[in-house]
Amino acid sequence: xxxxxxxxxxYGENTVALxxxxxxxxxxxxxxxxxxxxAGKTTVLKILRREEEPTKGNVFYKNxxxxxxxxxxxxxxxxxxxxxxxxxxxxxxxTVLENIALPLEIASKMSFKDIKNEVIKIAERLRLKRKLNxxxxxxxxxxxxxxxxxxxxxxxxxxxxADEPTGNLDILGTFExxxxxxxxxxxxxxxxxxxxxxxxxxxxxxxxxxxxxxxxIKDENPGxxxxx
Length: 228
Known about the structure:
alpha/beta
C-alpha cells in the first residue's frame, strides 16, 4: 500500500533528516515509528502526505507515485491519508460539532443536515455525542484528541498517521486513544504511529520501525523498544 523507496531528506546544505530510507507498509497494518527527537519520525509522516518533498527517492501509495501528483490534487490524497498531532490543531473557540464537521463543509457539497448526521455517527463511536455542543477549549486533553480523531475520520480515510498523539495525555487518556486506534485498525484502517513512548510499544506489540539520526536501523514485527 505504501512504499518508501530510497528516500533522503536534506535541509539546507548538510542537515540530514532522512538518509536513504526504504520500507513498505501493507494495507491494514498497524506500524509504529520510534526514535528520539530529531530521528526523522515526523519527516516520514510529512513526506507521506506530501507536506514535505524528499531530496531524492520516491514514495508510492497504492502503486501511485505521490511525487508526481500535481499540487491542485493533493487534497484527494490528504483525505485518504489523514493525520492527527500531539498539539491537536483544533479551533479552540468553536464547538466540538463545528470542529468535526469542518473538513466535510470544505470538501463536500453535502447539506448541513447530512453533515451533522455524519458527525453524530462518528461522535457516538468515540463517545463524544454528549460533547458536541461544548466549546473545544473547555475539554480535557484526551477529549481534544478524540475530537482530532473524529475530524480525521469524518473523511473516511484509508490511512491514519498519528504524530506523538498521546504526548500531552495522562496514562488513562493515552490508553483510551490507543484502544480507539486498535479498533480503527481492526476495521481495516492502516495506522502509522510515531512515538518515543516505551509503554506504547510494549502495549501494542506490533511492527516497529526504529529510526536513529535519520536512518532506519531496525524493522521488527512484533517490535521491541530500543533507542540509541
